[in-house]
Specification:
Blueprint lengths: L24 E7 L4 H9 L5 E7 L2 H8 L6 E4 L2 E3 L5 E3 L1 H6 L6 E5 L4 H9 L4 E4 L6 H38 L3 E5 L5 E4 L1 H7 L3 H4 L14 H9 L6 E9 L5 E12 L5 E9 H24 L3 E5 L5 E4 L1 H6 L5 H7 L3 H4 L4 H14 L1 E10 L5 E12 L5 E10 L3
Parallel strand pairs: 1-2, 1-3, 3-6, 6-7
Antiparallel strand pairs: 4-5, 8-9, 8-12, 10-11, 11-12, 13-14, 13-17, 15-16, 16-17
């Protein structure tokens, strides 16, 4: 916990962090009964620094001040007139502003009973009107305690936010996550664990991993993992575990020791499904292979070009259509599509204009020049591909001979 110490000489750092509107200004509400000594007391706390004082003569004025920018200290009488004119305690209003606004009650000379009553009602401290010399020390203590309370509240908010983030990650992680007590009994599992192994949380509560998801031949490996998990996380890059239906699944395992808030040892483990991942990779490889076969065997010419007019990728059909020996021959030897491929450079300019304006073109008719110099008419279908910032990456399209 961060502690802010307040010293009165030299000038005190009365306020800290975001609570202060201006770091060099002490903002004070004076709960006033009209006597000038209260405002003078407040201004004396500046110790040479700027002090902003706002007066509240009734409960409505006090409520209005509390609804605005934050103040650092409240000082003055313990009661103020309400709408009907009857005096009422100010502590409930000030407490609504939170612990960051301490209140020092000022009571009549010698009336310590009223001062103690103000403290019991919520004031941080009190002083009698005949002892103003106590105010600097009382203000220092009150502001120091308020800073501690703010730090504690901020710590609690941070911890609550961390717990909320952790709970969200736990509940929505695609990985299977389980928490175990010191006897390795299951305390909690997430949806990813249920999906991976086919159990419900109720079916696993109080049971062990060894009796549920660990096949018999893997028990020694499982026990060794926990034996090595005494002081550090331990990973198994690949292991075999068992689903509820008896089928086996290949997983990677990350086991970590956990210390509970009461100091007891516990464990957590995270399982990643390697079987599904392997199937997904195999599906991706098949898709890539199929796409490659389509690309290589397509009767349409297929290309990918840069915005400035260089071929990045071409298929055999396009190389053949334009009279080149191979896709490499076409891509390596054409430096400017506009000048070397289009018979009329204006066609390329119109193509670029339409693709940029609409994002794609269909059946764009153009005249192209083959490697042997012969001009042919073609139809292009193409689209522009942009990055996430809207910058043009490349053109992707197909070319076929135009019907006569």
């Amino acid at each position: 916990m961060k502690t802010v110490l307040v010293a009165l000489n030299p000038a005190p750092p009365w306020v800290t962090g975001r609570h202060s509107n201006r770091m060099n200004e002490l903002r004070i509400i004076v709960v006033s009964d009209g006597a000038p000594d209260l405002e003078a007391m407040a201004r004396s706390l500046g110790n040479g620094r700027s002090v902003a004082v706002r007066l509240a003569h009734d409960r409505e004025e006090l409520a209005a001040l509390l609804s605005g920018p934050a103040f650092d200290l409240a000082l003055g009488v313990a009661t103020l007139p309400g709408p009907g004119g009857d005096p009422a305690p100010v502590s409930p209003l000030l407490e609504g502003a939170g612990p960051a606004l301490p209140f020092i009650a000022v009571v009549p000379a010698g009336d310590h009973a009223r001062g103690l009553a103000a403290v019991q009602a919520g004031a941080a401290d009190y002083l009698t009107r005949d002892e103003p010399g106590r105010l600097p020390a009382a203000a220092a203590r009150a502001l120091r305690d308020a800073a501690r309370l703010r730090d504690h509240a901020q710590l609690e908010r941070s911890e609550a936010m961390f717990r909320a983030y952790f709970r969200h990650l736990f509940e929505h992680s695609p990985e299977g996550i389980v928490f175990l007590d010191a006897q390795r009994r299951i305390i909690e599992i997430n949806a990813g664990f249920c999906a991976l192994f086919g159990y419900t949380a109720g079916e696993l509560a109080g049971r062990t991993l060894a009796e549920t998801i660990v096949p018999g031949p893997m028990r020694e490996e499982h026990d060794d993992l926990f034996a090595r998990m005494g002081k550090a996380c331990v990973a198994l890059p690949e292991a075999t575990r068992r689903r509820k239906d008896g089928s086996e699944v290949r997983v990677s395992v990350l086991g970590c020791p956990v210390v509970t808030p009461d100091g007891h040892a516990a464990y957590s483990a995270m399982y990643t499904d390697l079987t599904s991942r392997q199937k997904a990779l195999e599906t991706l490889r098949r898709a890539e292979s199929n796409y490659r076969d389509i690309f290589l065997s397509a009767v349409e010419g297929i290309y990918l070009t840069t915005p400035v007019g260089r071929f990045v990728l071409v298929n055999p059909a396009l190389a053949d259509l334009l009279g080149f020996d191979s896709p490499g021959d076409l891509a390596d030897n054409v430096r400017s599509i506009s000048r070397e491929i289009y018979a009329d450079p204006e066609d390329r300019e119109e193509f670029v204009r339409q693709v940029r304006a609409r994002g794609s073109v269909l059946h764009f008719r153009a005249r192209m020049r083959r490697k042997d110099g012969r001009v042919i008419e073609v139809l292009e279908n193409a689209r522009a591909v942009f990055d996430e910032d809207g910058a043009l990456l490349y053109y992707q399209g197909t070319v076929i001979s135009a019907p006569a």
